[in-house]
């Protein structure tokens, strides 16, 4: 596991928490604590499965990256590829926003 990947994932979590309502952000912050591992792992699994079945009502594709982020807290080999994927998504979002602003 790379310390850089861990820092990158922490940055993405901070970005995500900043966009949540305060109560939900507090819950996510609690989930990230080492003592919450026994809640975090099953929740991450359920979010991943819910993201896979996003074509069903209520479930959504947003669940998949959130579940992977939570799962990566406990699975070090998942951190580098997830950090790269999130960096790619972030770059694409920034490019899209800049293109929108240039019009």
Rg: 15 Å
| Number of helical segments with 4 or more residues | 5
Structural class: mainly alpha
Main sheet makeup: none
Instruction: Please state roughly what percent of the residues sit in beta strands, choosing from under 5%, 5-15%, 15-25%, 25-35%, 35-45% or over 45%.
Output: under 5%
In angstroms, what separates the terminal alpha carbons? Answer: 42 Å
Shape: globular
Helical content (DSSP H or I, runs of 4+): over 70%
- DSSP strand tally: 0
Unreliable runs: none
How confident is the prediction overall: mean pLDDT? 86
SSE order: HHHHH
Provide keyphrases for this structure.
103 residues; mainly alpha; 5 helices; globular
Description:
The protein has 103 residues and is an all-alpha fold. It has helices at residues 3-18, 22-32, 37-52, 63-72, 79-102.
Layout of SSEs?
Blueprint: H1 3-18, H2 22-32, H3 37-52, H4 63-72, H5 79-102
Helix pairs in contact: 1-5, 3-4
A few lines on this structure:
Helix content is 75%, strand content 0%. The protein has 103 residues and is an all-alpha fold.
């Amino acid at each position: 596991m790379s310390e850089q990947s861990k820092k990158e994932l922490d940055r993405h979590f901070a970005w995500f928490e900043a966009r949540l309502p305060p109560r939900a952000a507090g819950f996510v912050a609690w989930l990230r604590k080492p003592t919450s591992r026994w809640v975090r792992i099953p929740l991450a699994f359920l979010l991943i499965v819910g993201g896979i079945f996003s074509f069903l009502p209520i479930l959504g594709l947003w669940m998949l990256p959130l579940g992977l982020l939570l799962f990566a807290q406990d699975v070090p080999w998942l951190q580098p590829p997830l950090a790269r994927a999130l960096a790619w998504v972030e770059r694409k979002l920034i490019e899209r926003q800049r293109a929108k602003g240039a019009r």
